[in-house]
Amino acid sequence: MEHGELISEGNFDYRVIAMYFFDETPASTAGAQMLESSEELKKSLGSLEKQFSDLPKPSSNPALQIQRLLTIYGKRGWSHYLTHQCGRYWYLHFRRDSNLASRPENFDSEELVVLQNISLEQYP
Fold first, then answer.
1. What is the pLDDT of residues 81-108, one digit of tens each?
2. Three-state secondary structure readout of the chain
3. CA end-to-end span of the chain, whole Å?
4. What is the rounded CA–CA span in Å between residue 4 and residue 124?
5. DSSP string for 85-118
6. How many angstroms from the chain centroid is the CA of residue 44?
7. In the beta sheet, which residues pair with residue 74?
């Protein structure tokens, strides 16, 4: 089975979404050196942020990211039924009645920011 494939079991379709959270504090001097060398990148990013200031920005708050993801899937008939952690990955399991018509969804710009790193096969 390919990663993110739609699975049918009984009367349900399933989706599993993996979320990865990382600690942004440097763990070593190598991490500190990488932060120093990234100053130029930060300046470039600042310029890009000004250029695209009207676009929604992703949250660095993991709880808020999960909350937004649960809301997006819930609005489209997906029920969250399990969460588990393996290392730094959190897996969110959703299911939906397979009798619900599968239809293309329109996502607003804030929803697209949340969904940007998810395979199209995993979209609600």
1. 999 989 888 899 999 988 876 666 788 8
2. CCCCCCEEECCEEEEEEEEECCCCCCCCHHHHHHHHHCHHHHHHHHHHHHHCCCCCCCCCCHHHHHHHHHHHHHHCCCEEEEEEEECCEEEEEEEEECCCCCCCCCCCHHHHHHHCCCCHHHCC
3. 19
4. 11
5. EETTEEEEEEEEETTSPP------HHHHHHHTTS
6. 24
7. none
Distance CA 18, CA 88 (A): 10
Name the pTM for this structure: 0.63
- Give per-residue pLDDT as tens, 9-39: 568 989 999 988 766 555 555 555 666 667 6
**Which amino acid, 71?**
T
